[in-house]
Amino acid sequence: MAQIKSFSWTNPNPAVARNLDVGFTVAEITIVDTTNGGSWYWTTGMANGSVLDVDAGTIAGANGVTPLAQGAVFGAAISGFTNANPGVITASNISQ
User: Fold this and answer.
1) d(Cα 64, Cα 12) in Å, to the nearest integer?
2) What are the pLDDT digits (tens) for 25-81?
3) What is the dihedral sign for C-alpha 72, 93, 7, 11?
4) Of 32, 23, 73, which is closest to residue 52 (Cα–Cα)?
5) Mind listing the pLDDT tens digit for each residue in 11-27?
């Protein structure tokens, strides 16, 4: 099961790094500039600092994405599931 988070922000100074705490280890990132156009993509296995410019079809080796280690889990961690009908999902207990 994938954990997904979406963010929107206006970066007043594009020369400054943007750090977002998503609370889990990131496997892939898609960035879309809704103001000026353009989209970029990063996935596990790509070098830190790199990013794929989707529109140009090129990989930039600098000024890209470097994921920071995240340890928290949002919601219950799923430890198993069945393919039965109905399916059964096993999740850890979360203390409130």
Assistant:
1) 18
2) 778 888 888 888 889 898 888 888 889 999 999 998 877 787 766 555 556 667 777
3) negative
4) 32
5) 776 666 677 777 777 78
Q: What is the number of other CB atoms lying within 10 angstroms of the CB of residue 26?
A: 17
Amino acid at 63: N
Distance of CA 81 to the CA centre of its chain: 24
Q: If DSSP codes are grouped into helix, strand and coil, which group holds residue 25?
A: coil
CA dihedral 37, 10, 64, 16 (to 10 degrees): 140
Strands (E), 1-88: 28-32, 39-43, 50-53, 58-65, 78-81
* CB 23, CB 12: distance < 8 Å: no
DSSP for residue 43: E
Nearest to 38 by CA among 54, 51, 23: 54
- Cα(23)–Cα(62) distance, integer angstroms: 25
User: pLDDT confidence of 96, banded at 50, 70, 90?
Assistant: very low
